[in-house]
Design a protein that fits this description.
Layout (H helix, E strand, L loop, with lengths): L1 H47 L5 E4 L2 E4 L1 H20 L7 H9 L7 H16 L7 H19 L5 H17 L2 H13 L4 H21 L19 H32 L3 H18 L8 H8 L5 H20 L7 H21 L4 H20 L2 H12 L2 H21 L4 H8 L8 H8 L11 E3 L5 H11 L3 E5 L5 E6 L20 E2 L4 H8 L7 E5 L2 E6 L1 H17 L1
Length: about 575
């Protein structure tokens, strides 16, 4: 009875601590998100203001300010990398992977450095997103609090709390935060997880309302919109949005491959990025920075179709360049931009058929949502973001058809999301499930070795038989004086044999100590025998039976069920 009371008391204590940690996450996420977003916007507004670093050439005015701001940003990012010892940035893909497995926690140092680099990049005018870094920072803060408090809570749920709070604070969209945590991170809806995740998201939203001046991100006509007349145009927009999303994600991956293949150092890539982005920005200044103003202009039909197509292409090129050649940031913001651009083209065409301006705006919003949903692989979240960011249920409903169709087409042609493709490029396939990841992370050297018989080439056949009989096994491993595995002998081959050299199997199936459990199971699937040797640089270090492998698989599965 006393033990049960202690367990109840511990559960209550843990629940209370989890409650206050969820509140702390919400507050921290709100403060950091608003500092990030508003700080980047302040620097962006300074860049667009009239002033120095401008020139008139052939009657045309050009601003060279972007060269200055991006150069300063590049220097600061190089210093961040050097000071923190970071060789690669981390983002939402790393947060997703951290939730799907338990053996590789988030690197706090890299997470903080990546957030700082993203802020510098956005403030310097690079074409990057702001929300992806905030998502990863939310997960990083969760990791920090878990490390400091060391309370017994579900790590995955707590990381999801941080991400939900970041989404809620960054977008001012608490419901979308809860949905994203389940849809993109946990990849399942859990009753037990909803409460702490919702607390973090609501607290972040409440902190936004009380501590900061928050406005709707997208300015659209506030009126009910009939969805029926929009359906034909949304059916046309959906495949175009899918092609745009695939082109955007493919450009990002191609840019990374080209940067890696170039062999250039990080500073060299940064210089290249500043020069190329600067010249593109001189011609199309609207593609630089976060693009919030331009998105509102596009969804409200303020640009010509020709200019929209030019902006779409330029935005994809400059974003792929910035994210792979020196700068860092999210992919969601630029996805909103290119989605609004292709939506603006469809909306203009719809206007030629007599569709009212507020109706064409809904097409622009739906297209923007469709492209971004396909990129991040979270259609329900994006639909809710549209509702919360526009303050209009009608726009969310109009977006639903386009988002779902675009996501379906993109999934068939490209994959679930850009983040999933990032992980797949690292050899991590989330479609195989958490169990496959756990088995792939479990190595053979973690499995206790079975008893085995070890002999030398000079051991007689009779002596080997006696040793096998005493050990009640049928196989023996032949090793030299340094325990290097030479072969394997079976009891059936030992009758009347004087030496082992002529009868031993010199190429027996073997495991390396660093083989994953998944790889080992594949190896053992066609094995016939009693046990399989485990070697380390040729030296025999153990032996495993198929039963040993099976029991380890069961233990991994049981651990996942407990989680």
């Amino acid at each position: 009875m006393e033990s049960k009371n202690q367990q109840r008391a511990e559960m209550v204590k843990t629940g209370i601590l989890q409650f206050f940690l969820a509140i702390a996450l919400g507050l921290i996420a709100s403060i950091v998100a608003n500092a990030f977003v508003e700080g980047a916007r302040w620097f962006e507004s300074y860049q667009t203001a009239d002033g120095m670093f401008t020139a008139s050439i052939a009657g045309m005015h050009f601003s060279f300010k972007i060269f200055v701001t991006m150069s300063c940003a590049a220097v600061l990012i190089i210093l961040v990398r050097k000071f923190l010892g970071i060789t690669a940035w981390s983002g939402p893909a790393d947060s997703i992977y951290a939730v799907q497995q338990s053996k590789e926690p988030l690197d706090i140092r890299v997470g903080v450095g990546s957030t700082l680099a993203a802020f510098i990049s956005a403030s310097g005018g690079a074409s990057v997103g702001q929300y992806g870094p905030l998502v990863h920072f939310g997960a990083t803060i969760s990791q920090i609090l878990l490390k400091l408090t060391k309370i017994n809570v579900d790590k995955n749920v707590f990381l999801a709390c941080g991400v939900a709070a970041a989404i809620s604070a960054g977008f001012n969209a608490p419901i979308a935060g809860v949905l994203f945590a389940h849809e993109a991170l946990l990849r399942r809806f859990s009753v037990g997880a909803i409460a702490p995740i919702a607390i973090s998201s609501i607290v972040a939203y409440a902190a936004n309302q009380y501590l900061f001046s928050i406005e709707l991100a997208f300015l659209v006509p506030d009126m009910p919109i009939p969805v029926g007349p929009l359906i034909p145009f949304l059916l046309i927009a959906a495949p175009l949005c899918s092609l745009t999303a695939i082109a955007y994600m493919s450009a990002l991956r191609k840019g990374k491959a080209m940067a890696t293949a170039s062999g250039w150092s990080f500073p060299q890539l940064a210089v290249l990025c500043v020069v190329v982005a600067g010249f593109i920005g001189m011609i199309f200044p609207d593609v630089l920075g976060l693009g919030s103003l331009q998105i509102n202009q596009m969804i409200n039909n303020e640009f010509t179709p020709t200019y929209l197509v030019a902006l779409l292409i330029a935005k994809i090129v400059i974003t792929a360049l910035c994210l792979n050649a020196g700068f860092f940031g999210g992919v969601f913001g630029p996805a909103l931009f290119v989605g609004a651009a292709i939506g603006g083209v469809v909306a203009y065409s719809a206007g030629l058929f007599g569709l009212a301006p507020e109706m064409t705006t809904a097409i622009g919003v739906a297209s923007m949502a469709a492209v971004s949903a396909a990129v991040i692989g979270a259609p329900l979240t994006v639909i809710m973001i549209v509702i919360e960011l526009t303050g209009s249920y009608s726009y969310g409903l109009a977006s639903m058809l386009c988002v779902i169709l675009c996501s379906l087409i993109t999934y068939r042609a490209f994959g679930l999301s850009y983040f999933d493709r990032q992980l797949l490029d690292r050899g991590i396939d989330l479609k195989l499930g958490r169990e496959h990841i756990a088995l792939s992370q479990t190595t053979i050297d973690e499995i206790p070795s079975s008893d085995y018989v070890k002999v030398t080439p000079d051991t007689s056949g009779q002596a080997t038989l006696d040793m096998l009989k005493a050990a009640q096994t049928t196989e023996a491993y032949v090793c030299d004086n340094q325990d290097v595995l030479l072969g394997k002998v079976n009891v059936l081959d030992l009758q009347g044999v004087v030496t082992l050299t002529g009868i031993m199997d010199r190429t027996p199936l073997s495991f390396d100590g660093q083989d994953s459990l998944t790889h080992a199971m594949e190896k053992a699937s066609e094995f016939v025998g009693e046990s399989i040797p485990v070697v380390d640089q040729g030296r025999l270090v153990g032996a495993l039976t198929e039963g040993d492998l099976f029991n380890k698989v069961l233990s991994v599965q049981e651990e996942l069920r407990k989680q």
